Amino acid sequence: MSAAFSSVRAIRRPGSFAGEKHSPPVASSKFASDFLGCAGRLPFGALSVSIRPRSARRRGLSSVVAVSDVVKEKKLKRSSSSSDLLITKEEGLELYEDMVLGRTFEDMCAQMYYRGKMFGFVHLYNGQEAVSTGFIKLLKQEDCVVSTYRDHVHALSKGVPARAVMSELFGKTTGCCRGQGGSMHMFSKEHNLLGGFAFIGEGIPIATGAAFTSKYRREVLKESDCDHVTVAFFGDGTCNNGQFYECLNMAALWKLPIVFVVENNLWAIGMSHLRATSDPQIWKKGPAFGMPGVHVDGMDVLKVREVAKEAIGRARRGEGPTLVECETYRFRGHSLADPDELRDPAEKARYAARDPIVALKKYILENNLASEAELKAIEKKIDEIMEDSVDFADASPLPPRSQLLENVFADPKGFGIGPDGRYRCEDPKFTEGTAHV
Amino acid sequence: MAAAIFQGFGASTALSLSKSFDSKRVKLPFGRSLSERRASFVVVRSDGRVVSDSCRARKLVTHAVATKADSAAATSASKPGHELLLFEALQEGLEEEMDRDPHVCVMGEDVGHYGGSYKVTKGLAKKFGDLRVLDTPIAENSFTGMGIGAAMTGLRPIVEGMNMGFLLLAYNQISNNCGMLHYTSGGQFKIPIVIRGPGGVGRQLGAEHSQRLESYFQSIPGIQMVACSTPYNAKGLMKAAIRSDNPVILFEHVLLYNLKERIPDEEYVLSLEEAEMVRPGEHVTILTYSRMRYHVMQAAKTLVNKGYDPEVIDIRSLKPFDLHTIGNSVKKTHRVLIVEECMRTGGIGASLTAAINENFHDYLDAPIVCLSSQDVPTPYAGTLEEWTVVQPAQIVTAVEQLCQ
């Protein structure tokens, strides 16, 4: 069948799922249990769209289902052949390596921050790796990624070297943004990472613009092979912001090749998503604008990857945008300055038990995709990369004074004409960074 | 194409305002054409090369003053040019740039099928298609951000604010992304975007449609701001803004769209950073921009009759200021009067006063006088509106006091 998302309709059932493995969520309202991914049963009667093979089925339903018809189909196909896994060995190792890189890097960031090597606001991604890896590892180099302030791992997944990101965090001139951006502003032209934005929501129009360029290239500049896709990542808090809605409208209106990925980790600093949102089911907002809205278990990289394949495929084929809500969780506070006192320890424990890296490791080992030794080798490799990146960042120089004025304008004539009639950028002091502008 | 250096066209190209106005739409206080105005344009290379490409070329710009004799010679040497209204000049510039580079596109409300609320994009959608001249929904912050994202990924968009005031909604994107993104990305992404639209106090449009956003945007690092005031500089600045790799905000004025002028047939691009010498003089330097240029020129007529010789400069570049042209003038006249439409508090005039004091304090014989609009939300009633804005009579009085 033509792989397409149908508009998701949640079928609410009273109470929680039968066979639900996890304990009920913190908020005990019906709303909350609906929200936490219990999208009900699909009308066709397929019980579980869990993509875990036999072992998972034995344990019963996962409480969170991906509601993609495609995944369901894959599952139906798979039941006929149990050797039909979702990933190959190479893919599995690639996913594993990427998630371990993200986790290790963030842990190293925390260490470095407390040692005074980086300052300001640092927002760590621990726990959400499945979303970044699940989506970005399906992208080409030419595809664009737009992120928020929680962007270290998106940068790493997109291919920005760990050295460059660590240097940027240390504020060194070898950082990916020459030390001028910092934790919240990771950019890479080479890898088409369009930021890194401090204000929530302000990256979404940028992503929409990148998708617009892709469509423009195809239709106006007649580059018929241009099928670049843009993936925009943002959180649950952003989904109450005007720019989100404005961009959903424009993207659907013009069928832009974009995927809107909501990393719903249930908390916007200390504001629970349920306390901030009239209808917490974010995926529902997609169909309201004329695009599919999909909810997926963001703690399971394989599920995310299946949904991502379809969403990215849709965009590449010119069928338009998709809204994907990934239910995920951040294991640490909002930032390194956040005492994280409001979240229930039981909730944290519940999600810690669903650690995406542990889950993937289990899948790989149980399905004999790779051996323990191979996974250990990957972990060792990551450790070495990490050490190297810290050493590199430590050894890198701080930006010199001469860098101060260099990138304010793409065309430095923008600083204007000084009293002596020369352009200010011609002043020798300009390159020293001490010119009067 | 030979580099024809235009030193001005003399009387034949003086703005002939009386005949060409739609008098219902615009009623400027002066009726006669400004034939006695010394035609003096900033010199520009018209061989299609952007002046600002080479700072060496700038040296050609200095002698902007044309006497009548020179201009007559120049007129006979050059083609006659063609007459058009300011909004048509903007359109011409825009169309030429869109023809020249397929990456140039327009987005904004009603720019496509409607042709633009002030007709600047009229006919362009038919010619270039709905994607290149994009009608957007009413979502300023988002479509401005979309323009910025498109600029980052290789296009050269022109974002139109239907009224400049609407761009207040886009302030997040203009400040954070448009201005700062080139810097925070370490120079990796350039934002060659043009943000343009009509602003200023119109004819009883009410407070919210009569705003002067140049004062709000001027602090944003990383952007350039220019204000056009004649068909000639409107076209030239539009083209320059589009070709610039920097984000440029082009301020047009609601009341100036129907000004008529004869402009060259040859292609020309003006410099974004330079001011324009409107009328050379000896006694006092009057710095102005946009609509106030015309109030100043009307006051200048009165002043000339009274025996004064004001030097009038249209600063054109609101950010950065052209301190060379301004400085040379201050060094000559030693007296400065700034006439602007911005509010008194924190306006362009306030910044300009500070910049001149800082750089040319020694050359001033008197404190700088700055005439701005009152710090009042522009009232609807015509009489009140008139009193919030600087009128020619006030300019005359100010010059007389300054020159005592």
The count of domains of chain A is 2
CATH architecture of the largest domain in chain B: 3-Layer(aba) Sandwich
CATH topology of the largest domain in chain B: Rossmann fold
Helix content of chain B: 25-40%
Principal-axes geometry of chain A comes out as globular
CATH architecture of the largest domain in chain A: 3-Layer(aba) Sandwich
Number of helices of chain B: 14
Q: Order of SSEs of chain A, N→C?
A: HHHHHEHHHEHEEEHHEHEHHHH
Q: Classify the fold: give the CATH topology of the largest domain in chain A.
A: Rossmann fold
Q: How much strand content do the residues of chain B show?
A: 15-25%
Keywords (chain A): Oxidoreductase, Pyruvate, Thiamine pyrophosphate
EC number (chain A): 1.2.4.1
Cofactor (chain A): thiamine diphosphate
Pfam family, one (chain A): E1_dh
What can you tell me about this protein's structure?
The complex is a heterodimer of chains A (437) and B (404). Chain A is α/β, with parallel strands linked by helices and 437 residues long. Chain A has two domains: 86-395, 3-Layer(aba) Sandwich (Rossmann fold), CATH 3.40.50.970; 408-437, no CATH class. Chain A has helices spanning 30-35, 54-59, 69-78, 89-114, 129-136, 152-158, 162-170, 203-219, 242-253, 273-276, 285-288, 301-316, 345-352, 356-366, 372-395, 428-432; strands at residues 144-146, 230-235, 258-264, 267-268, 271-272, 293-297, 322-327. In chain A, helix 5 runs parallel beside helix 6 (152-158) and helix 8 runs parallel beside helix 9 (242-253). Chain B is of the alpha/beta class and 404 residues long. Helices cover 33% and strands 17% of the residues of chain B. Chain B is built from 14 helices and 14 strands. Chain B has helices at residues 17-20, 68-77, 86-100, 124-128, 140-152, 171-179, 181-184, 214-217, 231-243, 292-305, 323-333, 348-360, 382-388, 392-402, and strands at residues 82-85, 104-108, 133-135, 156-160, 194-199, 224-227, 248-253, 260-263, 276-279, 284-288, 310-314, 317-319, 336-343, 369-373. The longest helix of chain B is centred in the N-terminal third of the chain and has 15 residues, at 86-100. The radius of gyration of chain B is 20 Å and the shape is globular. Chain B starts with 16 loop residues before the first helix and ends with a helix. Classes of the chains: A alpha/beta (437), B alpha/beta (404). At the A-B interface, helix 8 and helix 9 of A face helix 5, helix 6, helix 7 and helix 11 of B. Chain A: This is Pyruvate dehydrogenase E1 component subunit alpha. Chain A: Pfam families: E1_dh. Chain A: Its cofactor is thiamine diphosphate. Chain A: It comes from Rhodamnia argentea. Chain A: It catalyses: N(6)-[(R)-lipoyl]-L-lysyl-[protein] + pyruvate + H(+) = N(6)-[(R)-S(8)-acetyldihydrolipoyl]-L-lysyl-[protein] + CO2.
